[in-house]
Structures are given as C-alpha cells and as structure tokens.
Amino acid sequence: MSFFPSRTLAFYMAKMLMIRTFAVLAMLVLVLQALDLLGESGRIMAQEGNGQGELWTYVSLRAPQLVARFLPFAVLLGTIITAATLNQNSEVVSMKAGGLSAHQILAPLIIASMLVAVASFLFNEIVVAPATARLSAWEKVDYGPIPAASNVRTNVWVRDGNNLINAKTVTGRGDNVLLQDIVIYDRANNGLRSLMQGKEARFTGSGWTMTDVTQFNVLTGAEEQKASISLGESLRPDQFTLANVNAEGLSFLELRSAIAELKEAGRPTMGLESSLWHKISGPLSSILMPLLGAVAAFGLARSGQLFVRAVIGMALGFAYFVADNFSLAMGTIGAYPPILAAWAPFMLFFLIGETVLIRTEE
C-alpha cells in the first residue's frame, strides 16, 4: 500500500529526472533562442538607435516564453532518458524483484513532475506574462522605444460610426484610461473629410478631452491647431482597453478580470475562457509526461526493443501536444466549450497513459 517504500530510491529517481529535464530544457532554449534571434535581429537593428543592449533585451523577453512552452516537452524527454537509463542498467528489474509495481516505480517521477508543474505555473504568472506583454508592445512599435507603463496597449484601433480612431498607446483602466498619439479619421460616404491628430486624450465621464490638436481639412487643404477639444461622446473607455486582449500577456487573475469586463460589455469571451483554463491545464501537462514516457522503463533491455519503446513514449508525448494545441484552437474560435478545450486532452492522454502502462505491466 505504500507508494514510497524506499526514501533513498525515491530521491534517487526524482533527482535523475530533474537533472535530465533541466539539462534538456537548457539545450532546447539555447538552440531555439539562437535561431529566433537570428530571425529577429535584422528587424531589431533596423530601428535607429538600437544596438547590442536591445538584442539582450529581446533575449530576456523571449527566453521566458521558450522556457514555458518547452518545459513539458523537456519533462517528457527527461522521463524517457531516465527510464531508458534505469532499464538499460537493469535497475527497473531490481525494483520489480523487490516487489515494486509499475505505479510505485513511477511515483517519485510523478511527484517530481508535480513540483515542476507548480514551478511552471508560478513562473508563467510572475515572469512569462509580463515579459510577453512587454515584448508584444515592443513588436507593435517595430522595436522602437518601449513604453514605460506595464499595462500599456499599443496601436489600438476603434471604430466610431464611420470614423476610425487610432491610439498609439493606451494606458490605465476604467475611467482612468489615457490615450496618447491619437489620430482620428473623419469619414463620410466612404471618403476622408478630415484628419485630426492629438497628443493626449482623457475620459471625462461623458466624453473625451484631447489636447494639442492639429486638424487637417482634406476638402479645403486648411490646417488648424487647437489647445484642446471635446469629442467622442459615444466612445467608451472599454472600447480601447478591451479592443485586443492578449491572453498570453495577462496573468490568471488579470485575464479573469478582463473576461468579467468583456462579459459586462456584452462581448464574446469563450476563446479567452479557454485560454484562462489552459493557464492551469498547460503547466499540469508536466504530470502526464512520466506516465506517457514510462513505456521506455519496462520490458527487458536485452530484448532489443528499448529504442522502440523510447520512440513510442516520445510519440505519445508528441500526440498529446498536437491534441492540446488543436483543442485550444477549437476553444479559441468557440467550437469547443472552454473547459472541454482545456481539459479534454489532459484527461484523454491520462487514460491512454494508464492503459499503456497497465498493458506494459501485463
């Protein structure tokens, strides 16, 4: 009945998995970061004033995304390497001869993967989400000066009747929204009548006050400058703050708050709800990896099928990632209910892993 009959053995196996997992993760991130930097360095250096410092800034913002994305895959490879090593050295045979079942052998690996899952969730919330939001804002300004505000939204477009409004940066929430570098395209009958540019615009409760305004009349060619004007009585602040919610750039609590605001505004939220649930199911996928890769641990190494077993474990892991991405995409477009989109692949491959493990044990 005890899943950990030997404390020494449990720590030994958990240590093997952790060392191999993070070694594989470091190798993957190093290679992928180098390839990604080669592809983006041209765009970064094309911006006047950018140099080596901006390249390192890009690396510091991009690397957390790579770590979060490939950590479950690293756990899978770490499990396969650990299991194959134990099998090759006949340590699994010794454990089974000592009376351990397949689940008891895997228990230390699953506990270690649980710790990885918790660390992954915290890492996503504390590091990955802010880095993703900042990198997204930086990319939208073509790697120019990064806005200082942490809750900044860049290059936001809003339609007000026939008119189009573009704000280069949007900061704040609710009635404290601040628009900067605004351009208003006044249109009539599918034609442009005037172009209005302003430095800042603030919500006053019943409308907007825009300062340092320059208005160009397309019909007459006249240009007029004003210190401030009032406009946009029909425009709401949430049209700018909720115009493009980036689920990956928000933490779990921030995304849940944004979903609540969207629901109050009467907008669809199924896609974002799928991403919200996936912020939990994604890190928890690390727990599945020892179960899917465990097929490499069983069977006699001298039978010559160890490599085939390792390939089967890797194929199961790849199949999970494909199913997970497909299900999340279906949830994003509203084809799947949010909970089903986030949790169905996890439950399906948990059952598949258990089935393969039991059949292997038989």
UniProtKB/TrEMBL annotation:
<keyword id="KW-0472">Membrane</keyword>
<keyword id="KW-0812">Transmembrane</keyword>
<feature type="transmembrane region" description="Helical">
    <location>
        <begin position="63"/>
        <end position="84"/>
    </location>
</feature>
<protein>
    <submittedName>
        <fullName>LPS export ABC transporter permease LptG</fullName>
    </submittedName>
</protein>
<dbReference type="InterPro" id="IPR005495">
    <property type="entry name" value="LptG/LptF_permease"/>
</dbReference>
<feature type="transmembrane region" description="Helical">
    <location>
        <begin position="306"/>
        <end position="323"/>
    </location>
</feature>
<dbReference type="InterPro" id="IPR030923">
    <property type="entry name" value="LptG"/>
</dbReference>
<feature type="transmembrane region" description="Helical">
    <location>
        <begin position="335"/>
        <end position="358"/>
    </location>
</feature>
<keyword id="KW-1003">Cell membrane</keyword>
<keyword id="KW-1133">Transmembrane helix</keyword>
<feature type="transmembrane region" description="Helical">
    <location>
        <begin position="105"/>
        <end position="123"/>
    </location>
</feature>
<dbReference type="Pfam" id="PF03739">
    <property type="entry name" value="LptF_LptG"/>
</dbReference>
